Amino acid sequence: MPKRVDHQERRKLIADALMRVAAERGLEAVSLRHVAAEAGVSSGMVQHYFRTKDEMMTFALSVVRERGEARVTRAVAALGEDPSPRTLLRTMLAELLPLDEARRADGRVALAFLAYTAVRPTVAAGLHRETAELLAFIAGQIRAAQAAGAAETRVDPDRAAVALLAVMEGLGVYLLGGHYPAETALGALDAQLDLLLGPAPRGRAVPPRRPSKP
Amino acid sequence: MPKRVDHQERRKLIADALMRVAAERGLEAVSLRHVAAEAGVSSGMVQHYFRTKDEMMTFALSVVRERGEARVTRAVAALGEDPSPRTLLRTMLAELLPLDEARRADGRVALAFLAYTAVRPTVAAGLHRETAELLAFIAGQIRAAQAAGAAETRVDPDRAAVALLAVMEGLGVYLLGGHYPAETALGALDAQLDLLLGPAPRGRAVPPRRPSKP
């Protein structure tokens, strides 16, 4: 009996190859031919699953995003029940930083994709909803901390959420460029949370991450 | 008498062509051939001035950086003598955001370069000194504000500087992706400065920028 081809699986195989090419050699090396060679399939096969480079890039980024979400979900689950907004936000944002090789590889793909979409507004539009949802979630956590008396109330939660997400994104960009080590980025993230949500509560310290050197 | 060729001028002409290609069509469109066509010169001429793509990219980014510096210098000079650290930092960081078409074009080149260097550590290393100098300057301004009693003293100025520069970079990335309008980015930057340096002083308000729609 012929084996049924799992199309989603094959798309994933090709997207993984695309990501290895992008992470190791940069976005400009991402071509139909290179990706096909890396995946060990024909160029025709790649074209069967992805009609355009936009489609291939968008799918690759969605894989990167799903991995990031899975990492965040795992890390947040490990916090136990009912973590404070500060602990939750710290865990979530630190998990999205390119602090180890796996996350650096994903981060390079995400950065390549950002550069790619900066000249293709229609491709970028697909990401806007996700960003808006993430910002709403962060603003909700800031609002909860303010209501609990733990946070600065003179700052508008929506504006503070935009700034906090931008800190994470900017730290990621500087980490990928090797401008400073992981410790510097985490120190800045903590300083930001100190400013916004007050110092980390004693006796319930956030467990320090042990990042690998970039 | 034959006209003497101005080599710096010709490099600049080629780099400008590279930047137009990168800004309009993305980094992966940047090739010797495309850049030569855009500049109206031969591929051999481009190779005469830039032996490698790394050299061409590095020069293009230095042009973008010089333009940014010139914008910041002009804007800071317009503040008059002895602006407050808050006013100075606000002016400087807002000037570096991609809020109008000229700065968006430069921002796209910078983002493309970041993605390019993320897989080429030796090219990225050339930027590290500039980032360190910028961080030292920002930390110095935060320190001055703290000494003048205008700023939160519970935050380490060096960590706060890393976070503040990351905010600017992250806002730039989200603006280039069209995730939110210029007003949202400026609102977040002001919220960040409110947190760090206290609310803007009354009677000496920072003149509002009038950003163009992205």
TrEMBL record, chains A, B:
Q: Name one Pfam family in it.
A: TetR_C_6
Establish whether keyword Calcium is in the entry.
Answer: no
- Gene Ontology molecular-function annotations: DNA-binding transcription factor activity; transcription cis-regulatory region binding
Q: Which UniProt keywords apply?
A: DNA-binding, Repressor, Transcription, Transcription regulation
Q: Which ranges of the sequence are annotated as binding DNA?
A: 31-50
Q: What PROSITE patterns does UniProt report for this protein, alphabetically?
A: HTH_TETR_2
Source taxon at top rank: Bacteria
Q: What is this protein called?
A: Regulatory protein, tetR family
List membrane-spanning regions. none
InterPro entries, A to Z = BetI_C, Homeodomain-like_sf, HTH-type_TetR-like_transc_reg, HTH_TetR, Tet_transcr_reg_TetR-rel_C_sf
Q: Where is the signal peptide?
A: none
Species of the source: Micromonospora viridifaciens
Residues in HTH tetR-type domain copies: 8-68
